[in-house]
Amino acid sequence: MLLSKAQIKLITGLHQKKYRNKTGLFLAEGPKVVRELLNSGLQLHSLLTTDDISKWPNGTLQVSDTELKKLSALKNPGTTLGIFYIPDPVEARVDGLVLALDAVRDPGNLGTLIRLADWYGISSIVCSEDTADCFNPKVVQATMGSIARVRLHYLNLREFLNHCPNPVYGGYMDSDSVYSTTLSENAVLVLGNEGQGISDEVSQVIDHRISIPRFGENGTTESLNVATAGAILINEFRRPTGR
Amino acid sequence: MLLSKAQIKLITGLHQKKYRNKTGLFLAEGPKVVRELLNSGLQLHSLLTTDDISKWPNGTLQVSDTELKKLSALKNPGTTLGIFYIPDPVEARVDGLVLALDAVRDPGNLGTLIRLADWYGISSIVCSEDTADCFNPKVVQATMGSIARVRLHYLNLREFLNHCPNPVYGGYMDSDSVYSTTLSENAVLVLGNEGQGISDEVSQVIDHRISIPRFGENGTTESLNVATAGAILINEFRRPTGR
């Protein structure tokens, strides 16, 4: 069936944050991601597929490849596009391990970090207001469905950390080795921007600066990517100690 | 200056593996990566830039943005493009920790793994013949220069592992926890394909299957991306024990 102009405008509008905020909706692309979000109980607005519609909930719209391509925010659109309601905001949790992001901008990195948080049972990520939007279609895709289980909170990060009862750790390039730092079970781990690292403003409220030591003899290696460094640091917090 | 047809054909040809093998040359894009490769002593064939040529070695060619864009293999070409000689093959090392890749296909993942190997002082990566080519321009860019310090060996992986004197560990989804497995200092760590994991053929020569335990209560989390899982597992091998 053919989509109406209003439907097309709604969907392509959701590529933009402004319009997502206005409508309270977001796009999820690819059959795997859409299936995960349906299973996780997120509220569906509408669903479009080039696939057999009998595999999908009642009311799913059949569209052509050409139509789907026009609506997609991705280079390689999958067969299925879902429009979901953005869940209602909840208070950020402060118990256990909390991940905090200071201006992480790349959608792929943010998606990978959300997926990692999900794997390691971290249910809250607090973000500075200039961190990439977690309902950006590229981020949603990179989370592979984890966006349904991990809640992101955009706030004044310095304020939040300043009032946080638990110790605040920050990932830096050249500070104390994470291996010789005592890592608290209730803690916040801050990761910084791809190019700049943690901002000066946020650095002022960091209690412990930690680094992943370089093992190579060569001192010129570029720093690790923020998602890679995040994986290693989160694992250090979560792994059983004293093996 | 204008490039000759032959020069254009040479450079765009290097987007393809067949032509890289034939000429023994590869492309590196972006000023940071090119600078790293120059500093690391890789042999330069030629260099093109839209930048001030006085910042670059003698013989650097000045080109326009439009020309550079035509030559680039990337979506966002930087200001500088270098053509380097592929270094002569050397024998794969088997002492210390060796990384082995079984059909890792995504250039971004391969680049991230090379950068990780460099960070952790791993100088050899052995790869199945169907692993992505490390001189693919996207891989070269993702390594951020680490390609100059880490050598990749494409070979019959099963054969290599079968004759390897050290224990062979493989990363799997659901096997023994890496935290409770004794990790040898001299070892091979095998990581598998993005979708399929380690192939059946290679699995037959794995001594120890290891996994990163899921901490979330939710069993439906997608597996971790191979580069992320690789980061965590390499760190487990390299970190000091018994903290």
Q: What best-fitting shape of chain A do the alpha-carbon axes yield?
A: elongated
Instruction: Provide the β-strand percentage band of chain A.
Output: 15-25%
Show unreliable segments of chain A.
none
- The number of helical elements of chain A comes to 9
Query: Which oligomeric state applies?
Result: homodimer
Main beta sheet of chain A: strand number and arrangement?
6 strands, parallel
Number of domains of chain A: 2
CATH topology of the largest domain in chain A, by name, is Alpha/beta knot
CATH class of the largest domain in chain A: Alpha Beta
Please, what is the CATH homologous superfamily of the largest domain in chain A?
SPOUT methyltransferase, trefoil knot domain
Question: How many beta strands in the DSSP annotation of chain A?
Answer: 10
Spell out the helices and strands of chain A N to C: HHEHEEHEEHEHEHEEHEH
Radius of gyration of chain A: 20 Å
Give the chain pair forming the largest contact, with residue counts. Answer: A-B, 40 and 40 residues
User: How confident is the prediction overall: mean pLDDT of chain A?
Assistant: 93
CATH architecture of the largest domain in chain A, please? Answer: 3-Layer(aba) Sandwich
The end-to-end span of chain A amounts to 60 Å
Instruction: Please list the strands of the largest sheet of chain A in the order they lie side by side.
Output: 7-6-5-9-8-10
Helix amount of chain A: 25-40%
Structural class of chain A: alpha/beta
Pfam family, one (chains A, B): SpoU_methylase
Keywords (chains A, B): Methyltransferase, Transferase
Protein name (chains A, B): RNA methyltransferase
Family (chains A, B): Belongs to the class IV-like SAM-binding methyltransferase superfamily. RNA methyltransferase TrmH family.
